[in-house]
Amino acid sequence: MKTKPTLTTVCTCLCVSWLFLASGRNVEATSTSRVPSRPSVSIVIDTKTKTLNLYVHHRLFHTYPVALGKDTTPTPVGNWIIIQRERNWGSGFGTRWLGLNVPWGIYGIHGTNRPTSIGHLASGGCIRMHNSDVEEVYERVRIGTPVSILGDPLDPLRSLEDGHVGADVRLVQDRLWRLGFYHGPLHGRYDAATIAAVKAFEQKLGLPVDGVVSERDYRALGLIE
Question: What CATH architecture is 7-150?
Answer without folding.
Answer: Beta Barrel (2.40)
